[in-house]
């Protein structure tokens, strides 16, 4: 699966995207966030507990309890506003 990071999250993690193979017990977006925090200090900072960021699975905005089984892409992005 591909994981993509946007805006300041990309700079903090140090990559715009990466191919990953999480273990079988990583079933939801929230599980993935917890697992990714252990990849590097940058991941831990960008995905810190309590940090404000959103997620999308296969280009659809989702909540962190959404399953990632079969997903091709998960993206993380900072909050944004419209106008």
TrEMBL record:
<dbReference type="Pfam" id="PF02597">
    <property type="entry name" value="ThiS"/>
</dbReference>
<protein>
    <submittedName>
        <fullName>Molybdopterin synthase sulfur carrier subunit</fullName>
    </submittedName>
</protein>
<dbReference type="InterPro" id="IPR016155">
    <property type="entry name" value="Mopterin_synth/thiamin_S_b"/>
</dbReference>
<dbReference type="InterPro" id="IPR003749">
    <property type="entry name" value="ThiS/MoaD-like"/>
</dbReference>
<dbReference type="InterPro" id="IPR012675">
    <property type="entry name" value="Beta-grasp_dom_sf"/>
</dbReference>
């Amino acid at each position: 699966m591909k994981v993509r990071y946007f805006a300041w999250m990309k700079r903090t993690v140090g990559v715009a995207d990466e191919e990953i193979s999480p273990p079988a017990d990583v079933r939801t977006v929230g599980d993935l966030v917890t697992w990714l925090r252990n990849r590097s200090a940058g991941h831990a900072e960008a995905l810190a507990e309590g940090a404000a960021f959103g997620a999308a699975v296969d280009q659809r905005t989702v909540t962190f309890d959404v399953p990632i089984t079969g997903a091709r892409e998960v993206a993380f992005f900072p909050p944004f506003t419209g106008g």
